[in-house]
Amino acid sequence: MMWLMNYITKNSIEKPGAVSGSVKKGAEGTSVLASDEHKMLLQCLPYGVYSVPPNGCSAVVLPVGEGEVTLGVTSGTAEINQGELALYSSGGASIILKNNGDVVINGRVFASE
Q1: What digits encode the pLDDT tens for the residues 17-37?
Q2: Residue 78: what pLDDT?
Q3: Residues of the chain below pLDDT 70
Q4: What are phi and psi of 95, to 5 degrees?
Q5: Order of strands across the sheet with 103-105?
Q6: How far, CA to CA in Å, does 6 sit from each of 9, 16, 22, 38, 81?
Q7: Domain locations along the chain
Q8: What angle do CA 12, 48, 40 make, to 5 degrees?
Q9: Is the CB of residue 39 less than 8 Å from the CB of residue 69?
């Protein structure tokens, strides 16, 4: 996401007015409460990934074109090594893709062959 922020900053006449606030999911979709309420936000996520952030998460909102998008939520640290990928749900499910090819699903290791 850092490359996106750098690109937008370098290619904008004025700096983007990014704000951060608290996520609120309602009947009208995802909104973020900052100094104002930003409603019906689209999320900027990697292709093939979709998530609905839990209420209360801290999210970043960026104005684009004639609307706004949320670039995602801030997250804590994960106990993974550089180059690894971890997916977590608020219910405790997890998938970790390890550098050695192993996949760890909810703590169970599936070794690469």
Answers
A1: 788 888 887 766 778 888 788
A2: 75
A3: 1-16, 27-28
A4: -135, 130
A5: 85-88, 94-97, 103-105, 108-110
A6: 5, 10, 24, 23, 25
A7: 2-73, 76-113
A8: 55
A9: no
pLDDT for position 21: 85
Distances (CA, A) of 70 to 17, 45, 61: 12, 9, 4
The Cα–Cα gap between 42 and 51 comes to: 11
Tokens of 92: 């405790």
Place of tokens 């090594």: 81
Q: What is the pTM of this model?
A: 0.65
List phi, psi (to 5°) of 40. Answer: 50, 50
User: What per-residue confidence (pLDDT) applies to 42?
Assistant: 82
* Identity of residue 113: E
CB atoms within 10 A of CB 98: 18
Q: Is 30 left (phi over 0), alpha (psi -120 to 50) or beta?
A: beta
Q: What pLDDT does residue 108 have?
A: 97
CA distance 24 to 81: 32
112 within 8 A of 97, measured Cβ to Cβ: no
